[in-house]
Amino acid sequence: MGYFLTQTLAGGMPSVTSGSNKYGSWQWWDEGILTFTPCQKTDQALLLSVGIHGNETAPVELLMPWVDDLLAGKVSVAWRLMVVLGHPAALTEQKRYLHSDLNRMFGGRWQAFPDSPETQRAQLLEQAVTRFWNEGHEPRRWHLDMHTAIRESYHPRFGVLPFREMPYDPEFLEWLGDAGLEALVFHQKPAGTFSHFSCEHFNASSCTLELGKARRFGENALETFATTQEALYALLAGVTATQTHQPPLYYRVTQQITRTSDNFILHMSDDTRNFTPFTRGTCLAEDGIHQSIVQKETEYVLFPNPNVAPGLRAGLMLAKI
Ligand SMILES: [Zn+2]
Q: Which domains does the chain have, with CATH numbers?
């Protein structure tokens, strides 16, 4: 499974925490947090994170062989790089989270949750990422946070982009198409995701990539990730766009369905796929006297999940741009 992953899942730190090879030097900052600085000066920095949800193993399997090659000096990298194994304790158990969802806690939101392994991890990751972005002054900053989804989807691979005042780097959007993403969803409000944190505080072009359905280690059909893996390896080598893709469809978030009480009912079945369309007037969810209704002619559902804690997102509704 690879040295970096095995060491991280074994807990704690390896005995040797830094080193160098002909392409650059690496530093193991903390549990599951590795940086690499290439010898050759670069004006771009990249944060790659996987396993923020511990049951989403495919991105981990996709990235780890390359990380081992990097440490062994077999491949070079064109970026100052940070690789993050998001939630080692949850990865060990292959559970989405142990207590609460880590990917709702960034931007200091962990302070509003009861103390848990996730609130501590969110705090540590924020500190590490802050140090990483502040250590360099690269004009180009990208953050790719790679996930797999709980549900089947009409677009098997898609990206969710944080709310951002400034337009996105066109090469970034192009690369996401190269990586096989069929749809890009643009958030209209700040959120507690890891990708939003890099975008809001460090002006990174960032994206949460959903790369297929969550399965256990060894059970992932890695050939379905081949396009993404190829684009990622090319990106790491310094090729940002090949324009071999079909341009993705663009969606924006129109409304969030929030669970506010124990009376919450989501009017969708357990097998409702991501990007399922609903027509105007449809009642999507009820929470006591409050109803969530489709406002636009057609809205598409993303991440429907009634089993969340009160106050958290039970789904997003989208419109095509
Ligand atoms: Zn996830």
A: 3-247 (3.40.630.10), 257-320 (2.40.50.630)
